[in-house]
Amino acid sequence: MLDTIGATPLVRLPRLEAARGLQARLALKLEFFNPLASLKDRIGQAMVAEAEAAGLLTPDAEPPQTIVEPTSGNTGIALAFVAAAKGYRLVVTMPDGASAERRKMLRLLGAEVVLTPAPLGMAGAIAEAERIAAATPGAWMPRQFDNPANPAVHAATTAEEIWADTAGEVDVVVAGLGTGGTLTGIATALKPRRPGLTLVGVEPAESAFLSGDDPGPHEIQGIGAGFKPGVLELEKVDLLRRVTEREAFAAARLCARTEGIPIGISSGAVLHAMLDLAQQPEHHGKLITGIAASFAERYLSTDLFHGL
Prior knowledge:
Strand content: 15-25%
Protein name: cysteine synthase
Largest sheet: 6 strands, mixed
Shape: globular
Pathway: Amino-acid biosynthesis; L-cysteine biosynthesis; L-cysteine from L-serine: step 2/2
Number of strands: 9
Pfam family, one: PALP
Strand order of the largest sheet: 1-2-9-6-7-8
Helix content: 25-40%
Enzyme class: transferase
CATH architecture of the largest domain: 3-Layer(aba) Sandwich
InterPro entries: Cys_synth (IPR005856), Cys_Synth/Cystath_Beta-Synth (IPR050214), CysK (IPR005859), TrpB-like_PALP (IPR001926), TrpB-like_PALP_sf (IPR036052)
Order of helices and strands: EHEHEHEHEHHEHEEHHE
Structural class: alpha/beta
């Protein structure tokens, strides 16, 4: 199962280009082709493998070792399937505003789910995870926001896949800023090889902390943590784009209906930013690549599907 992670497709969006009369080229990297349907499968496996190599975790130990991690959902799901495949106990903490689909997938995979108040955001989930880990003998925390294995796996895999699939002609990469590991890893691998490559980070307009605003609650799950993660190297991000919840929902629906690609909410935010960039004269003729982190069906209980 773990060997099926990665090698996700990069697809062009010709109908959206035509509908908007764009002179730039658009492509989405469909990370929901990973086995548990999100970008986070890459870091779930990578962080556990790194811990095993360092002697911090032993597969199939008796009793099973415990992994504790705060998550908005997809990292937890990635860790849950890796933990199940390797024989670990997993406890995740997450804001209670996360979609029901995420909670149920975690429980289906055998994880123990501890919910924290949504208004406290990821900071609240992190604090609770720290408390649980401290009270659990032998517990290990991946700490996705600070773990160098996070950007490293994106440098080694995600970036290389983009480079190969664009034949080195990628001009702009757009990704949501959750941990920041995706953009940091891609920038680390590709900027030295592609002078002029532009890296664009997307955050919720309702919680644009990295742009200088106060953090706040928002509905774009998976990005906008409300603090600067340790793995995020902001100096490698060329532009920050704020996208509202309404814009993210609208772009995700547009992608499904125009291209037949049902993307999640944060992916809708990424697509909205891509469409905005594509209309700017300096990007005419350029190839704008976006990271579609997850699949629409993980958000059936959210406003993405409201009225359907």
